[in-house]
Amino acid sequence: TEKGGAKHFELAAAAGETEFKPGGATATWGYNGSYLGPTIRARRGDDLRFTVRNHLEETTTVHFHGAHLPAEMDGGPHQPIEPGGTWEPEWTVDQPATMLWYHPHPHGNTARHIFRGLSGLIYLDDDASDALDLPREYGVDDVPLIVQDRTFDGANQFDEDEDFSSSTGIHGDEILVNGTYGPYFEATTRRLRLRILNGSNARLYTFGLSDERDFQIIGSDGGLLSAPVTAGRITLSPAERTDLVVELRPGETVDLRSYPVEVEINSPFDRNNGLDDSFDILRIRAADELADSPEVPGELIEVPSLAAEAVAAERSFALQSPDSINGESMDMNRIDFGTEVDTVEEWTVRSTDGFQHNFHVHDVQFQVASLNGEEPPAHLRGWKDTVLLEGNGEAKLLMRFTAYTDPDVPYMYHCHILLHEDQGMMGQFVVL
Ligand code: C2O
Ligand code: CU
Ligand code: CU
């Protein structure tokens, strides 16, 4: 365990308005501003403390997605912050360097709170990643991208109406990146690290570069991979993150785009779930002279495999639209099971209705042991907290809960397609 310092951050959720594009300001929500929130930066070993204030007119929460922390600090539906109220979570960071995010998680209202703009990033650092020669100058050669889709109505307001032809909820027809409409980035270095969060409610993206060049994937939700993976495309479902490095040539312009998503779903209505759509995400303009940056190391960090360990419990989870896991909807008063601290469990998660879902577990980073009965692709062999399931797809996940036990306060697992989450495709467990 690394020794860190004390860090205190203030977050205040409030309503405001944001000028995204000509034609008038959009009513939005944000933390410490009108849209999104500040990037929180901390190191492994740091004692992190937050003062969270709720200036909204309704109850919200702040959940630290992907963070390993005590259940009462998790910010799920059991830690509501009333209008005018304050919440002060704290914990000691003890997990590998990565990019996490924070967002509201109020019971039944998560989709709307996130859609209006409440989300922010957490960068975690540690000694192992600092020892690697990777781009790490924030906003210069290490650039986070929060990708969201929104539809603007005639008065430039977010169109919040559910699309009843889609089983997964709201799909926008325009893209915001870090809350910016029509974004571009002026690159000044030969290698550019992009840490992408799919911050959308429902949409899946398959990212790639406009001239089909390859990039190197160096990290997943919960940390760096053991080695970089060369790829030309990467698919992210809501809440998933990737960490990748793009090589640039002086003076060029290249676009990060999203392409039609090739996931199997058992429905002729792919368009209704946005899978056929394409978007320009970010224009990258490289300066005529680029500062040199080192090649990505061939080996990154050690990712100890949980596959070699004895499995203490096996559980299975069947996700079924519109609102259930194993036939039951989320009930704040029902704890579905208790898991034993410091043991390895294998969870089998399945889509049973032919549609895409994804599966997220609080407090832990898991390993994907198999995907549809096969070894997962290399970029999914690192630490993950959210995994995409194709229609009728199945993933086996290995995980170990450590350090924090609490017989009374549960953590959540759920589909991170936010309409499904709010409809009750969620359950609760305690660590004992
Ligand atoms: Cu992104 Cu239950 O959370
Ligand atoms: Cu979470
Ligand atoms: Cu779902």
Describe this structure in words.
InterPro entries: Cu-oxidase-like_N (IPR011707), Cu-oxidase_C (IPR011706), Cu-oxidase_fam (IPR045087), Cu_oxidase_Cu_BS (IPR002355), Cupredoxin (IPR008972). It comes from Salininema proteolyticum. The chain is mainly beta and 432 residues long. It has 3 domains: 118 residues, Immunoglobulin-like (Sandwich); 150 residues, Cupredoxins -  blue copper proteins (Immunoglobulin-like); 126 residues, Cupredoxins -  blue copper proteins (Immunoglobulin-like), CATH 2.60.40. It contains 3 helices and 31 strands. It has a 7-stranded mixed β-sheet with strand order 12-11-10-14-19-16-17, with no helix packed on it. Strands 1, 2, 4, 6 and 7 form a 5-stranded mixed β-sheet that branches. A 5-stranded mixed β-sheet has the order 13-21-20-15-18, with no helix packed on it. It is globular, with a radius of gyration of 20 Å. Bound molecules: CU-O-CU linkage and copper (II) ion (2 copies). The site of one copper (II) ion (CU) has 4 residues, from strand 5.
